[in-house]
Structures are given as C-alpha cells and as structure tokens.
Sequence to fold (173 residues):
Amino acid sequence: MSRLRFKISISLDGFVTGPNQSVDNPLGIGGMRLHEWAFGLAVFRVQHGMEDGEVNESTRVIEESLANIGATVMGRNMFGGHPGPWEAKQQARRAAGGKDVSLTGGAKASQQFLATGLVDEMEISVVPTLLGSGERLFDDVGDDLHGLELVRTVAAPQVTHIKFAKTLRGKGH
Fold:
C-alpha cells in the first residue's frame, strides 16, 4: 500500500509561506528563505540540471524523501495562484502506481490532509528564520497527531529536520 509522505519547510514562528502570496510570488514575501538550505546541495542541483554542490546531513534527508515517490500533491495556491478545492488524493494514488505519494504543501492542502489523519509520514524542515506572518502550517489542524510519532531529528547547516511517522504502536491509537 502506498504511503502519503508529507514534507515541508517551516519558519521558527510556524509559517510555511510569507505574507502576500500571489501568482508572481507563490511563497509570499520572504518565503523563499525557507528553502535556501537546499539550493546549494548537490542532490538539489543535479535534479535541476546543475553541477557541483555541497554534501551535508541534509543530503540523506532529501535523497530519502525522493525515494519510491510515484506522484506528488501540492496545493493550488502554491503555483496556481488561486485557492479552491482540489480532490487529489485518489488521483495521486492511482498515478503513483503502488509507489508512495509525496505531499509538498501548501499550507491549506497540508492542513486538510493532517486534520483528517491521512498523513503516514511527516518531515518538517525547521529553518532558523522569522517570517512574521503568512500561512501557518498547524492552523485549524487541532491537537491530534493521528498516530504520527517522532522518529528522527537531523541537525544540518541552516536547518533541522524533524521526522514523524505512523508506527505499528502509533497505528492503534
């Protein structure tokens, strides 16, 4: 059975986008800072047709997040520029062909999947920056992790990765 694996970068003050998202600025003002930790990594650069790059503790985290992914779901507001409903889970599972489905944000789509307990694995990359406003990841999610338990932390330059997963023990709760 494929798993829904959620990954996202978040600021210290809990935002996954900056303020004033738009078609021209889908991550909002300052939102790109949430991803700067990845831009210099060799694994990121190769994916985007570039050469060279750094290898550090984040390399393994990214490589693992890409393994066995058959489809990716992202919110409409991330790159479409306009909010609205998007029934994507079943389509993504069909498209994944038995492989895992990656959920990569944005805030509203992630909140919906988290609140309903559909996330099997969650990797939050905490970036040491403050955005001040924007969209918070855990607004309207409630206080239930739906069986997700902390399974790993990885400290790396400019980011700390925190991974949660449904474990055999967590699935019964």
Notes: The mean pLDDT is 89.
